Amino acid sequence: MDTSFKREPATGDGGRMASAAWGPPFILGLLTAILGLVALGASFLTSMVSIILFGALLAGSGIAEIISAFRVRKSGGPFWLYLLGGVLSTVVGVFVLAYPAAGLGALTLLLAGYFFASGLFHVVTSLMDRYAQWGWDFAYGAISILLGITIMSQWPISAVWLVGTLVGISILMRGIALMAGSLELRRAVRSFSS
């Protein structure tokens, strides 16, 4: 009984199926990367769209939490926790929608504080523990502190570009990751079929 396995070359239908496996993710990644570049080019517009979307999601989740509060009330759940949390989320979301520029300024300050505090944490822990490769963590922390200070020193002007730039970079990196993953899939399909 012959149990040897012979691979057939990827021709015709097999080649099209292989292309269908990696082609659409590559095209999606390319379009996503282009969208990221456009978002970086129009960082103020991207910032405003992002903060409006954030406000709408916050208000929507607050309303859903209020509805959940009345549903759990019948079962003896944490009614007041859900109700007050939902009211807070809804009010903040509505304020962000009504005053997007103020919401953008507040979000920029929160991000600056996060970068500064996170960087300080990384610098202090890397210096105290001196674990393997601690220098990379120290460098990350120092850059993060510098970024936080720069954003705070340029506020409120930094509110115009920061959120849009971060969103644009995130979209661009996601597109590049999709393209890289699809090319790796293409390489694996080709090596299997040859």
Automatic annotation (TrEMBL):
It comes from the Bacteria. The keyword Membrane applies. One of its GO terms (cellular component) is plasma membrane. Coiled coil: none annotated. InterPro entries: Acid_resist_chaperone_HdeD, DUF308_memb. The keyword Nucleotide-binding does not apply. Keywords: Membrane, Transmembrane, Transmembrane helix. The chain crosses the membrane at residues 21-42, 48-67, 79-98, 104-124, 136-155, 161-183. Pfam families: DUF308. This is HdeD family acid-resistance protein. It comes from Myxococcus stipitatus (strain DSM 14675 / JCM 12634 / Mx s8).
